[in-house]
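Consortium newsletter contribution from the modelling node. Members have asked for a concrete example of what our holo predictions look like. Here is one, prepared for the F7E complex that several groups have been discussing at recent meetings.
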Amino acid sequence: MSERRALVTGISGQDGSYLAELLLEKGYRVFGAVRRSSGENLHRIQHLLGDIELIHADLLDQQSLVTMLRRARPHEVYNLAAQSYVPLSWEQPMLTAEVNAVGVARLLEAIRLVNPAIRFYQASSSEMFGQAREVPQNEDTPLHPRSPYGVAKTYGHYITVNYRESYGLFACSGILFNHESPRRGKEFVSRKITDGVARIKLGLARELRLGNLAAKRDWGYAKDYVRAMWLMLQQDRPSDYVIATGEAHSVEDFARLAFAHVGLQWRDFVRVDPTLFRPAEVDHLIGDATKAGRELGWQPTVRFPELVALMVEADLALVAAEVRASRGTQIRP
Ligand code: NAP
Ligand code: F7E
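And here is the predicted structure:
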């Protein structure tokens, strides 16, 4: 069979690293778009660096996207790159729009110019449902985003649908609900909690400051979710899919389970910090992934309690290694 080539933007992020692993397992030649950085930001894909090919490109720079596609000549493009942290989108709404909204149009235009046969995946988000109009949310639920991030992702979603309808591109939008893993950034609440629990358990911290404990999310495992991305691009026809577990839990539930996993009571350590509340909150998201189950044969394999446990275990191991390393440093002459 001829070589299959895939290009992943955002390859240095949580999902990019898992998707690159999946594509390599499937025999793809994998290209990744990375931004130039003055520091080290490839830690999530360090173990893959001998197997993937990195190209400098930025969603803010149209020509870099064209050059990247000409070099990689991909059959499939997965657009995972984004300013993905919701609170920052109030501080940098223009940047968020440039990357998460206009950046998608730039990439679609580059595909149209270089090779319209490329199959395209857009990383859309349950944040587009925002103040959700129905429960649970599916592909037909009206959108009501509540943050500049959600608004920008809504443009990215519709421009993807529009290029499919206008130019016949094989363009899919995956409406993914929150998905987490030990590779999640520590600014997101799941990893903030599991890292905090590990630090408290190992005596490095005394408390964990959180914002809105009542917010409910449908949390799944990132490794399951990148499989759905790949499946979307293997179908006969392009379409949009909600990817979710169908269960919602509160931030408080997450904290309770994570502390209980190490034999502690969350109430003894969690402090509510009003400065961490958002100008407009998304109170309750829960997804209906029936279409993905029916058409892609996709199902989540990891449920909430298992997800919390695996993240706490991973952070305990990481923090313990940090402690050992710092002791080693201290006793060196
Ligand atoms: P992440 O860990 O924050 O990764 C984001 C990636 O985008 C990083 O590789 C980052 O590169 C890159 N990036 C940021 N700005 C860029 C730019 N201007 N040009 C090129 N690359 C840029 O996010 P994630 O959790 O893996 O999420 C992947 C995608 O899915 C994102 O689009 C996110 O918005 C979306 N999404 C995520 C979830 C979730 O629960 N994880 C749910 C729905 C949708 P650096 O390493 O250089 O910063
Ligand atoms: O917040 C509440 C916060 O930042 C979840 C991104 O991947 O998923 C993610 O966006 C909830 C919110 O994720 C803290 O108010 C309480 O209600 O982990 P988060 P998010 O905003 O849902 C979607 C699907 C994406 O697309 C995004 O890219 O937790 N919360 N206390 C807190 N949140 C944070 N970050 N920190 C706290 O201390």
